[in-house]
Fold Thiosulfate dehydrogenase [quinone] large subunit.
Amino acid sequence: MNDKLNFNQIQLVSLVLLRILIGWHFLYEGVIKLYNPSWTAKGYLLSATYMEGFFGWLASDSMIAVTDTLNIAALIFVGVSLLLGFKSSWGSLIGIGLLLFYYLAHPPFPGYPLGPSEGSYWIINKNLIEAAALFVIFLFPTSSFVGIDRLFVKKEITPSTT
């Protein structure tokens, strides 16, 4: 079995760029929430149009502080993980989980009212697309090529010449 994964230079650079861009998005969202003392997910959760009971529970007075803290911590962890290429598989999975929660709170399903969105969608929205992109990042270990994980991996990823 070959322990060497071969991608061409453009493929690797594209995947690393995708990882970094998504990492920046997550880190920005986490930091902006961290430094805004009035930010809370309560309004977003209470306006959920799907699984209202679950999201209402997350927004309850007994849970909202934990929910907000975990949301901010997860956003920052995912962002740093993807930007630095350190534990990016974990970061990708946690990011997918967050995005699926955001998606399910306000899914663009036919017959459901539109929640807070930047446009009119039908089944697919930016949360689902970014989750799919994170799944691609999870499948392709770009942090083994560019990132801190490169210091700890045994498999070598090198650009092919073909």
In short: The two ends are 20 Å apart (CA to CA). Strands lie at 4-8, 156-160. Residues 18-142 form one domain.
